[in-house]
Input
Amino acid sequence: MATPSHETSEVTSPLTNEVTAEQESLPSVFKNSEPIREDQIQNAIKFLSHSRVRGSPVIHRRSFLERKGLTKEEIDEAFRRVPDPSPSSQTTVTSQDGQQAVSHVQPQGQIQAMQPAPVVMIPPPSLLSRFRWYHAALAIGVLAASGAGTAVFVKRSLIPRLKSWVRKIMLEEESDSLERADGKPSLAEEAVAAARAASAAASDVARVSQEMMKTKTEERKNFEDLMQLLGVQVQEMKSLSNNIRYLERNSNNLPKVYSANQEVYGGLVKTPAERRPYANGSNIDYDTRSARSTSPPAPPADSSVAPHPKSYMDIMSMIQRGEKPSNIREINDMPPNPNQQLPNPRIAPKAKPWDYGQAPQEEGSNGPWWQQKNPRSGDFGYETTSARSIGIQNETSTMEPAAIQKQRSWVPPQPPPVVMPEAAEAIRRPKPQAKIDQEVVAAAASDSNQSGVSDELQKVTKFSESGGDGSGRLQITEIQEETEKQHLGQEGN
Amino acid sequence: MPVFKAPFNGYSVKFSPFYESRLAVATAQNFGILGNGKIHVLELSPGPPGVAESVSFDTADAVYDVAWSESHDSVLVAALGDGSVKIYDTALPPPSNPVRSFQEHAREVHSADYNPTRRDSFLTASWDDTVKLWAVDRPASIRTFKEHAYCVYQAVWNPKHGDVFASASGDCTVRIWDVREPGSTMIIPGHDFEILSCDWNKYDDCVLATSSVDKTIKVWDVRSYRAPLAVLNGHGYAVRKVKFSPHRRSLVASCSYDMSVCLWDYMVEDALVGRYDHHTEFAVGIDMSVLVEGLMASTGWDELVYVWQQGMDPRAS
Output
């Protein structure tokens, strides 16, 4: 990339470690020079030692302390002092060139810094052993007793019964065998009877099974009804939760317990964040955040809800229902030629007004509309009262030259305020005006600091404006026109 | 005063540092929730209609911010909702654009700012809690600054010190960084609520302003940052953007969800010096021209871009 040749030497690439004199003017201003405050560290240690805090991610702990006004050094010191087994630092800096002297970059620790889990509650061994032995002894005793009891019981009652039953059967068999010879026809009858009984039983069984089927289908129907009702209820609950979520979003600054089960929408949709401390500055201990929903800072994030457009609400509800707005097109916005050459700059970079105290145009009444200023330079808002605007005008007209002059390389002497209007008139007479014109031409031709000349003229216009009457205005604008033309000619806009 | 109607909701407007009649507008469909985006390059004209589009670029996702290059007059940086950072050359027709696309941020890129002193690098701030430093001609970011605990909404270069910048974040802090240092050099817990924007005073390199969801703008001196220099009250809702005037040392412009654009003089007791109520939806973008004193532009969710001189009514025809 070709740098224009006339660019000042202060423009160096951030890649080099060169530090020019200009940059070192006030480097320490943007750093903390406060000493470490011990009381703040003590507060931080108390906070960090709290059991609930220990369970939260490190970045949240740091963020909380930062919001309390602790400096980086104080926070680091507090972390160092609190006996925390987990890695404590969060700073990650990726430098692709590796040229930065990375002195206190700490490796990115686990974000989920949890305490090593001392979860298992092991009861004191003595207690257990006591129980063990005691229980064992008791169990053995009980078993033995029950075993003995059953043995006795079996011996005394069951076996005699068994014996009698066996005897009975044997007697029956004997009697049966005696009757068998005469009982053959009765056998057939018995068979028939048995068959009938069987069929009756079968029909019974069939009936019973039919009834069972009926009840089953009924139950299934009931079950389905139940499921439907449940489904309806789930839908209602879903919509309720959507509404609640929406309301929560809208009342974001109210006290809120941060729920750990927040739904996170897909990456396409931006829904507002839902973490907020108390509205009136009172503190909660810390923010716990398990899932962050994406967020525009926008509509819901005020203490009083900013009423947002109806169509915004429509779109939000559409997206919550899972629908996509219909007006979205498929657009390929990738670079057609990723190696496209960057253009050569056609214009040199312009100096900033705060660099050289470039005098702003006071009255560009003949320029395009965007250069035309209100005749009263201090009147910013058309709604402001005239009294206020005049007050401001006086202030700014005296303030501004001083402000601009501070930045410039040479400072013209402060002209005295106009005491006599006649003196201001004298300035505007043709003879001195020609002199000023010559100055302008000479300055422009020699390409010297134009702003100095224009500033001088500006001062002339300024206190002639404040002290003079309307008659001088025409001539002032003439002078301005001259310088304007010079400006335009030079800058080649 | 001219007004431009965009097809999508406005998000950001920036004047070109090279052409006093040129500005770029970042817009997003469906309020930036979900949809495409569009970048408009507008030209001011002396006659009616006063402002007209000279070229526009369509993007697949919302454009949340644009930044003009300080070294190349036709180059634009765009910050997109899909996490990409794209470079556009407005001198080339749309089919040849963008000329670069960097996909590094894991979340939406919310702001882009070009270095006004070194002119060779720019910053992007993203909802993935990081700020990245880039150069246009390099294929990847130079550095990633990861310290904030929540979305970073804006990162702004210091107008005097080319290595120093400030970042405003939803973790309620403003951090001052120096690219020569590995981490942030200062942490200012500026507000009790999310800080949406910050900007440096162009004439006092140690002073910066922050605007927040708490409806206030605070002006800080980094040398004594425990208490603000001034607290500017007056907005009815969150203040979305704050900008220091390039021409007057104590003049601050701001835009808010109360649909107004306000001008403040923070050194004065009654700080509110101007109020414009031209927007009919959230006013989210504002800029003050570096080349033309008093020229301002604003945009909002009402899809309108206004350009006007301070002291004039933006809606006057």
Remarks:
- Chain A touches chain B through 122 residues (CB under 8 Å).
- The first strand of chain A starts at residue 92 and ends at 95.
- The mean pLDDT of chain A is 64.
- Chain A is about 50% helix and 0% strand.
